[in-house]
Amino acid sequence: MYCIAFTEPEHGSDLAAVETLGDVIGDEVFLTGTKVWLHHADRADAALVLCRTEPAAQRYHNLSCVLVPLHDNNVQLRPLRQISGSDDYFEAVFDGARAPLTNIVGGRGNGCRVAMETLACARSSPGTFDPVDVEREYWDLVETARGYGRDRNPLIRQRLAQAYARMRILQLHHQRASSLTNLLWSDYRRSLGEIAMDIMGPDALIRPDSETYATSHWQHVLLSGQAESVANGTGDLQRTTIGEHLLGLPK
Fold first, then answer.
1. Contact, 142 vs 204, CB < 8 A?
2. 136 and 229 belong to one structural domain
3. What is the mean pLDDT of residues 74-85?
4. Residue 204 lies in domain
5. What is the pLDDT of the chain when averaged over all its residues?
6. Cα maximum dimension of the chain
7. What CATH number corresponds to the domain at position 144?
8. Per-residue pLDDT for 175 more than 70?
9. At what angle do helices 111-124 and 179-200 cross, to 10 degrees?
10. For a tag on the chain, would you pick the N or C end, based on fewer CB atoms within 10 A?
11. Residues ≥6 apart with Cβ < 8 Å to 104
């Protein structure tokens, strides 16, 4: 298993501005730099790292994608705790990490092309959700509304009806690998958390008792839903992909 290591602390989504160095010495690449938002890096064997390997080349042609082993290889992983309490994303510090030249994917100087293809695959992959779990969670929200006596509120009923329609559409699109699925999922997930907060009222502000940072289920849905709306590309990026690749609109 490998994870993606493109983003850097100071450059965000500007892939062409990455500063991680990949010094080519003999038949190896030595990497130095810092990457962030590596998903499940603690479970991965290697990371696909975008780095500068061609110092004399022009912008966009000076980068390579290198598959770098993460274990016993001068790589330090630091968990990044999110507002939801989750810590499944990591910062990785490469301090002379080594990889053979044969681990350069797509050839030297072709890092931007490989990175864009990789991101396109990630953004068009099916949503990581189970249709059965999605439906169960929806009906849990309905029960929450009943428990708070909000199931007779016309505005809450309308929003629950809209969420039900979105949930059914998601189930229909689950097996389809497209940006449309990701856009539907992120919009649905974010709205579900917002509905839950309005249903719970003041109770939504109170975290469960715990010795560590803890959130209730609906608090977690609200907070994680904000992150999911940008995890595989923002809604605008997804809409651009839909327009160009599904609808055939001009760039």
1. no
2. yes
3. 88
4. 131-246
5. 87
6. 72
7. 1.20.140.10
8. no
9. 60
10. C
11. 29, 53, 64, 65, 66, 67
Distance CA 50, CA 31 (A): 10
The reply to whether 6 and 37 lie within a common domain is yes
* Rg, C-alpha atoms of the chain: 21
Helix or strand (DSSP H, E) at 75: strand 75-80
CATH code of residue 91:
2.40.110.10
Statement to judge: residues 30 and 113 lie in one domain: yes
| Per-residue model confidence as pLDDT tens digits over 5-44 | 999 998 776 778 899 999 999 999 999 999 998 989 999 9
Q: What pLDDT does 123 receive? A: 62
Same structural domain for residues 8 and 116? Answer: yes
Instruction: Provide the whole-model pTM.
Output: 0.73
Q: State the pLDDT confidence band at 176, using cuts at 50, 70 and 90.
A: low
Q: What pLDDT is stored for residue 214 in this prediction?
A: 80
Closest CA to 238 of 172, 178, 171, 189: 178
Contact 85, 203 (CB under 8 A): no
Asked whether the predicted pLDDT for residue 162 surpasses 90, the reply is yes
> What is the rounded distance in angstroms from the CA atom of residue 34 to the CA atom of residue 77?
10
Question: Does 170 have pLDDT greater than 80?
Answer: yes
46, 67 Cβ separation under 8 angstroms: yes
Do 66 and 104 meet the contact criterion of CB atoms below 8 Å apart?
Answer: yes
What residue has token string 């579900």?
192
* Cα 198 from Cα 185, distance rounded (Å): 20
